[in-house]
């Protein structure tokens, strides 16, 4: 509780200190950035601290953190007293805004503390940083390494002598909060996950609040209306983003209850429905006894693996990750795609502010003129560079949001035309360059596993599995689009149809172009693939296209969303503000159409191509793109639901309420059933084991090793030699929980983060270190990797034939407890 309270106080004070800055930077938003202030403050603080520590201008200590905090405060003070502000009297206007928006402030604060406390309680009921099926040890290792690294870039905990080669900005933020509040890394892991959940909740709430204000009370003379909407309807934002889930949990409940199964006299069971659905676990007969509540542990994992890919030989190619936020928080991994979520929402809010004209100004770029001010340009660069540092994949969706929002803003000034493509490039290229320069130390040291783009000929997503993944968002989106059509919302159907079909054709053409290039330039890669499918090029293409026709339901569903969305977006409705202004305004819902369009394309794109990486399939591309799509589409679905509940009456409202009740029940089935299963009913049988310390379970399961962790916290830092083992195992436990780098941790993960050749002979050298009786050989290995501590425990003895004599003879024994001993190199 002490750590929880200290984190809450720190992040709340940070938000209040940052609010004057967001008040200035987001003038077109009704909440003036209040709901974003915590996330924005953490981003700016983290950027300044990381940059100063990397450049040697600050140390990785409390002094460096305080320096970064002083700069954040200084920016807020500048925003208040700088007379060039677009606000007439900023000092009085902030006070006036606070007094006029007490309901919003109270609701935001209540939502934040409830979300933070709720997720902290869930994590306290399931705090263990287990290795099986997750990557929590990697995350704790990063946090610990950053806390204990004397300089930046921080040391790679699992490859001594190297810096982290990963998008690690989120772990810098976690380490900052941990260091500032004296929180150990294994507690910080769970608190950071809880904080990200709470920041995402208020972020989604704020975006929906701002959208609803703009939708119901449009801007007048570029000023937000003084009228205020309901503060409860925006709660649909966090509901759809963080709680509503895909349909697998609902289907799993039906499956476990035996629905749609035929039980035969011989004890077997058959089902056409579940066989047709073809999702692993669900296609197998249910386990007795039949209940609506799944009993087996780990059943909830299947919800993130609902898309099945088969090659043309009908061989299953493995799990395709189709993760969504509720699964992420149930699993509890503090991975970059989760850490980036509140900052992606911050980017959505910035794009909305840009769309609404909040950053009006002029920047002369010599080769063209941008119609936004320097403040907006620099904030955009800060956000996009931050997204790349947090979770590099997110820069695609975040960058598209920023540049297309700018294009829509320009539409309000000059209308539709080919010039909007010029606007996209005019902003996109310079802002990416500036973002790159701002985060240059990260990009210089970053080594991506991506190795190009591959065509996805064989792997279109089946329509039914697409609906299992996205049905809870598709239904409110389609209902909203139908509502707009019935109410004769202006639409350019010709433009919408041709653009949607054109995008599909472009994706199809790109897929063929990439495939033909690969055939011409990399025949040694393509020919083995064709041989594995027992087909020549013509047969391979023909059978792949036939499969697309067979699975056409997925494409038709996405077109059913994309065509009306683009038709409404390209509407030419004009609203002349006055006789002296030749500009016209897009309807405020145009921003929602942008979210839907981008989200739909993120789902559609992996059906045509995927990034080549260590996995060799489209597993990672579907995962990253669909996670971004969930964030965008959930906001749009929440907006549609809020608008329809506000505007529908009588019979229509009743029918829509019934429909949404079904959707919400189906979407809530997963968290309602999964979280008690994952937490052991919130540790009802062992409430004394509730803790936020993710390493506490090791005191019971690995008491000797746990004692070694505690002892090593007081030692001078140095490179540690310990056993090398496989991924998702207890190996690398010393480096993980002490922050000291080891010679080699999980080799598979290091191979994902950087060139595997850099591992060299480390695995074999560590084996020789433990097993050789020759001191000269051992001494050479110690010098090569600058090893200071050698750990000999049960894992080392299980992995190698340990020769103890040389350790006792030539090294200094500094710790022995039970099965583990620690030696220091003299």
Compact overview of the structure:
With 826 residues, the chain is mainly α.
Walk me through this protein's architecture:
By secondary structure, the protein is mainly alpha-helical. It is built from 34 helices and 12 strands. The strands form 5 sheets. A 4-stranded mixed sheet has the order 9-10-12-11, sandwiched between helices. A hairpin with a 5-residue loop joins strand 3 (307-310) and strand 4.
How many helix segments? 34
| Biggest beta sheet summary | 4 strands, mixed
Percent in helix? 55-70%
- For the largest sheet, list the strands in their spatial order: 9-10-12-11
Strand content: 5-15%
Overall pLDDT level = 90
Gross geometry = globular
Coarse structural class: mainly alpha
- Using only C-alpha atoms, the radius of gyration works out to 28 Å
What low-confidence regions span 5 or more consecutive residues with pLDDT below 50?
Answer: 83-88, 219-225, 574-583
Highlighted features:
mainly alpha; four-stranded mixed sheet; two-stranded antiparallel sheet
Please outline the helices and strands.
Layout (H helix, E strand, L loop, with lengths): L1 H24 L11 H19 L6 H20 L8 H11 L1 H23 L11 H13 L20 H12 L4 H32 L19 H8 L4 H9 L5 E2 L5 E2 L1 H6 L29 E4 L5 E5 L4 H7 L4 H4 L1 H15 L4 E5 L4 E4 L1 H17 L3 H21 L4 H20 L1 H6 L7 E3 L7 H24 L6 H29 L1 H10 L4 H14 L1 H18 L20 H15 L4 E3 L7 H29 L2 H34 L14 H4 L1 H10 L6 E3 L11 H6 L8 H7 L8 H10 L3 H11 L1 E6 L1 H6 L4 H7 L1 E6 L2 E5 L2
Parallel strand pairs: 9-10
Antiparallel strand pairs: 1-2, 3-4, 5-6, 7-8, 10-12, 11-12
